[in-house]
Structure formats: C-alpha cells, structure tokens
Amino acid sequence: MIGSEKGWPLLSEHSGAFLRLQRLLSRKEGFSLCFLTFSDSAYRDRVAAYFAERLRASTWVKIDRHEVIGTELLFDRLNKGARGEPAQLSGLEHWKEGLDDLLARLNHRRDALAARCPRPLLFWVLTKDAEVVATRAADLWAWRSGLFAFSLPTGTVAARLPPSDSPFLSDADAEKRRARVCELQHHLGETLPTLAYDVSLLIELGDLQRALGDWDSAERTYQRAERASSDLDDRRRKTLVRSRVADLFVDRGRLDAALRIFTEEALPVYEQLGDAREAAATRGQIAHILQARGEFDEALRIRTEDELPVYERLGDVRSAAVTKGRIADILQARGEFDEALRIRTEDELPVYERLGDVRSAAVAKGRIADILQARGRFDEALRIRTEDELPVYERLGDVRAAAVAKGRIADILEARGQLDEALRVYKQEVLPAFEALGNRNEVSTVQQRIDDLRGGR
Fold first, then answer.
1. Element housing 82 (H / E)
2. Which of 11, 72, 97, 309 is 20 to 30 A from 285, alpha carbon to alpha carbon?
3. CA of 454: how far to CAs of 190, 281, 447, in Å?
4. What's phi and psi for 59, nearest 5 deg?
C-alpha cells in the first residue's frame, strides 16, 4: 500500500496507475487532460485527498447535485490555486442538468477550457460512464493524455477508515483539534450532506470529538452521519458509522450495546458483501468486547479460528501479526505469560521489524515490558520502556503514545518503591501532555493516579 504518514491510503493494486500518473504530470506543463475512473465514491474521495498531497492537486472542484452553475464558473473554480498545479474535478455524475448536458458543454467549449485552465486537469469519472464520455464528448476524449483506473475489484468495498486518517487525530494538540472541529462544523452546517465526501467529514468530526472526550457530541455527529448515509443509500458507509458508534459505546462502557451493533448490524453486512477482511476485523472487535467482559475462552476462539486464518489466507502478514499480538493479550490476561512472551518475541515483533514498522515494533516491545513487569523483572521492563519504546514515539512526534509510555514508566517506579519519582513523572510529564491533547477523560484518569500516589506516600 502506497501512502504518506498523513495522507490517505492507496490500495496496492492501484500503485501502477498512480506512478504512471505521477510520471506523466512531472513531464507536463500547461493544459493536459487525464480521466480517472472509479467505482466507489468513498475510495475516490480518499484517493483524491491523497493526490491533493502527493501530486499537489489541492484544487479540487466537487460538483454538487443541488447547485446550478455554468461552465464559466466551473472553469473559474478549476483555475484557482497555485499556477500550473493539477486540479481535480469530481461529481460529474451529479451535474444538475445531467451528464449528457455537461459533456456537451465541455466538448463544445474544449478550446476555452484549455485556454482558461492552463494546468493538468484530472477528471474523475464513474467506470460505467467512461464509455459515455468517449462517445458523447468524442473530441474532448481525444485530447486525453491518459486514462487511469482506480476502480475497486468487483465484490469488494473500500477499507474501513482508521482514526489516523485525519492528521488532527495523530499528533495535534487540543487547540488544533478544536480549531479543526470549528472548521468542520462551519463547513457542514446543520443540514445533512449530499455527497459521500461530506459524510467522511462528518465521520472525521465525530472522531475528533471522541478524541477530545466530548462523547455526547461525538454520538450526535455519528447519528447525523448515519442519517446522511441512509439518505445517500450508502450501505457500506452507514455500516462504517454504526461501527464508529459501537466503538464509542465501548469507550463509555456500554459493552452490550456495542456487541449488538457488531454482531447484528455490521458483521451481516460485510458477510453479504463478501468482504472477508472487514468481516474478520469486525469479529476481532467482537472478541475485544468479550475479552473486556472476561470471556477469554470465546475471545481466544474467535481470534484463532475466525480472524487469524482470514489474514493468513489473504497473505496479509501485518494484520496476522497484529492478531497474534491480540491473542497474546488474552493469554497474558489469563496469566499464561510464557506463551504470551513467546508470541510477542517470535511471531509478532519480527514481522514489524521486517516490514520496517518502527511504531508497531515499539508497541510490541512495550507489551513485552508489560509481561516482564508483571513477573517482577522491573529493571528489564524499565530499560525497554526508556531505551526501546519511548524514544520511538518521541522521534515520531506521537505525543499521546509517549505520554502513555511515561505513565507506564511511572508505574514501574512505583512498583520499585520510588514513589516520589513516579509522582514527579505523572505530574510534570504525563498530565501536561494529556492536558495539551485535550481529552478530559484521560486527564481525569491521570489525575486519579496522581491522587493515588499521593495517598500512598
């Protein structure tokens, strides 16, 4: 999978099309025309956002089905932004007067389009409409510099959006997150969106509110995204939002409600769509809830029999390693430290190191330190935390992960009887970091730890 740390992911089967497009744009100056085909609007939006960063195609004009505009205004919008940088146009299928009308306009005014927009133009077209463009706007089609396919394979859907899709969820402080929340609220207003892209922004808004600990607002935002997905008849996206609601319920301790959503709503949809990967991931979320309820045997069965084999069959070595790590979590919770440690050191960590995934490797080392700490091997655990785990998060700028690691260092210091130093770490390093991130629930938890340490002195 091609992607940047803060960009949107691009499926590996589309890497060739991306590289061809990148090479073509590097050689083009002035006007040129590329057609990009897609089949899934959610994935199209993610790829377009990725292009905005990687190809500097930040001018992105989205046609709204409810807005009536003429070709002159359309040309003006396409020519905004830095001179010479590519512009993207999506939503051709939403043109108020119909696709045929838009194609006739563009075909008739192709010379004006080239003169008014002296830059590479990337036109997103539904795969099923590509032939329509070629026949109804033959002269415009003949001007194309290339045709690039970004359609999903038949029977598959775009992958679930992870929280890290938004850069404001990774390493931004509370002030930046709140500013982004205000920006999204202003953009989205109070009405339901009419485009899948705006539903994605609603999901981002809900994720940010959840990250800030504003769970009530997050739930209301997810409900709004759910209604919008229903209006757009976007079954996959509605299921994604319902899964977000379930994740929020887990945060709030409403495990039964979360379990019902995953088992009765999300899982059946992915099974009907034939999406084995998302079905496996949903079963993993079910196992997570069962583990939280202390139902270790059933959680372990799901991980080993229903989830892990799917990733191994798909050849997804990273997801398989993650699942093995979660199997180790269950074994660790059952007190089976030897087997958990073996899985961490032999099956999980080597995969991350081979893939060059330094963050996941640091997390795995932290889990190893957990086991060593539980067995009373405090010196080894402290060395891993301070030398192998924490420096990685600091180098990556992952403020939250670094704060969590420092909290665990403080826990080791407490276990060794160094209460004053443990209290200092919590007060001077952990608490300020969480306060800067703005999650009031995490701040409350850390404050409780500080109070406990004060009471134990």
1. none
2. 11
3. 47, 42, 11
4. -75, 110
Which tokens go with 113? 């389009």
DSSP annotation of 2: B
Instruction: Give strand ranges (E) for 113-256.
Output: 120-126, 146-149
Total residues belonging to the chain: 457
CA angle 127, 128, 131 (to 5 degrees): 95
Residues 6+ apart with CB under 8 A from 207: 163, 166, 169, 218, 244
Reduced to 3 states, what is the DSSP secondary structure of residue 453?
Answer: helix
Show the 3-state SS of 100-155.
HHHHHHHHHCHHHHHHHCCCEEEEEEEHHHHHHHHHHCHHHHHCCCEEEECCCCCC
DSSP annotation of 55: S
Residue pair 15/149 in contact (Cβ under 8 Å)? The answer is: no
Distance CA 266, CA 286 (A): 11
Q: Which residues, 6 or more positions from 68, have their beta carbon under 8 angstroms from its beta carbon?
A: 96
Q: Which helix (H) or strand (E) holds 87?
A: strand 87-90
d(CA 40, CA 272): 17
Q: Which two tokens stand for residue 124?
A: 């997103």
Q: Is the dihedral of CA 337, 342, 343, 345 positive or negative?
A: positive
163 touches 211 (CB < 8 A): yes
Nearest partner of 184 among 212, 208, 216, 210, judged by Cα: 208
Q: How many CB atoms lie within 10 A of CB 434?
A: 24
Q: What is the pLDDT at residue 9?
A: 52
Reported as a single tens digit per residue, the pLDDT across 261-320 is 999 999 999 898 888 889 999 999 999 999 989 999 999 999 999 999 999 998 889 899
Identify which of 288, 289, 268, 287 has the alpha carbon closest to the alpha carbon of residue 279.
268
Closest listed residue to residue 391, CA positions, set 352, 371, 424, 365: 365
Q: How many CA atoms lie within 13 A of 342 on its CB side?
A: 5
Q: Is 148 left (phi over 0), alpha (psi -120 to 50) or beta?
A: beta
Q: Which residues pair with 60 in a beta bridge?
A: 88
Q: How many CB atoms lie within 10 A of CB 381?
A: 24
pTM above 0.85, yes or no: no
Q: Which residues does 227 contact at the CB level (< 8 Å), separation at least 6? A: 192
pLDDT tens digits, residue range 36-86? 998 877 778 878 888 887 888 888 988 876 667 788 889 988 988 778 889
Domain architecture of the chain: domains with CATH:
12-149 (3.40.50.300), 398-457 (no CATH)
Nearest by Cα to 257 from 219, 207, 208 = 219
Residue 442 has pLDDT above 90, yes or no: no
DSSP string spanning 204-240?
A: HHHHHHHHTT-HHHHHHHHHHHHHHHHHTT-HHHHHH
